[in-house]
Automatic annotation (TrEMBL):
Its cofactor is pyridoxal 5'-phosphate. Gene3D superfamilies: Aspartate Aminotransferase, domain 1, Type I PLP-dependent aspartate aminotransferase-like (Major domain). SUPFAM superfamilies: PLP-dependent transferases. GO terms for molecular function: pyridoxal phosphate binding; transaminase activity. Keywords: Aminotransferase, Pyridoxal phosphate, Transferase. This is Aspartate aminotransferase family protein. It comes from Larkinella knui. Pfam families: Aminotran_3.
Amino acid sequence: YTESAALLERARQVLAGGVSSEFRKYNHPHAIFYTHGLGSRIYDVDGNEYLDFTLSQGPLLLGHSHPEVLQAVQEYSEQGQLFAGQHLREIKLAEKLVQLIPSAELLRFCLDGSEAVQTALRVARAKTGRQKFLRFEGHYHGWLDNVAWGFSAPSLEALGERDNPTVFPWSQGLATNSRDEFSVLPWNDLALVEEFVARNHQELAAIITEPIMCNNGCILPEPAFLPGLRNLCDQYGIALIFDEVITGFRVGLGGAQQFYDVTPDLSIFAKALASGYPISAVVGKRDWMKRIEDGSVIHAGTMNAGNPTVAAALATLKVLEREQPHQRLYQYGWQLMAGLQQAAADTGQNLQIQGLGPMFSTVFTDSAPARDYRGTLANDKAKLSRFIAGLHNRGVRVIGRGLWYISAAHTQADIDQAIQTATDVLKTL
Ligand code: PMP
């Protein structure tokens, strides 16, 4: 990794922190700079090839460098930069999303997941006339001030009493302190949410949740949880917001809302929408989204819905619709999960796997599978780091906190290779 090491030094001269955030945050064994990615593979500046399950943090549902996406971006780039409200393709993309996503009647485009979350929160406030939000421990809703806090791992003691909603210490480095806007509860505990909402509904504009908790482990909602949130929100006129930045298109073309058959009022799609090109969408029921039209919600952004990024989204959705890769994503995902489970049993490792197939998490713990963020604190992070490092050094890239993403470019041979490599690594832990 000599070339990557040299580039990290060079980067540190001009880029705050030297970039390579995965390396810094998650104890990846090396800072890596890449030359290119193709299909299920990614290549670094030292000439190493990796079987990639990170997919640029999720967006590359079609794998690296899908030719149709690249071609669409190139073609539309040559037509010049047209932005939101200036070109037919934005309308076509919106029509497509309305067709695919169960709760989408009206929508707006933004640049990324973080921005779209903020728009959804504004819409919820405008419609309800209330100011506060409820969110859940360990869920990530972007890096902007009001939502960034609460994600970085606090100790169990810092979480406080289970039914004390003010649970997280402040993350450092935020520009403003707007914690009063949000209450935070443990996830998957409907009784607790019901109790809280019954007491506080007059102030609550929205409940926001990832429909599958993907940013700390990959934890599925218990069967009654999402329908329970839906009922509560109906009962009290609160917006139910699904943050589908990870689940969108990945668990199915209509997102987790289709998979679980629970319809939110507002939801957010980003990552996979355009294979990583910068575009996101906040979508919702007409009654909610029309607050943008009547001027009570400001929604702007010079770069929104740029011609080439819309092209990337249209091409991505076209390929997804044509090739219908989801059955394969699930099949390969389940195969990989089962293979890893078997490898763990054979090597006597306390590897625990949670998830759905298209994405899942691997952690090390002797405890029962986590059902919320607090449950994840039992994971052996040092062992996970050794596992991730071992995989990496044998040419398999997995997100450092133990998250695996499957793409439509993965093959049976890739799955077999990953299981074999993981078996080799588990023997060494
Ligand atoms: N919500 C969720 C669930 C996410 O996983 C992320 C990004 N990982 C975001 C919001 C923020 O999206 P972005 O990084 O595109 O701003």
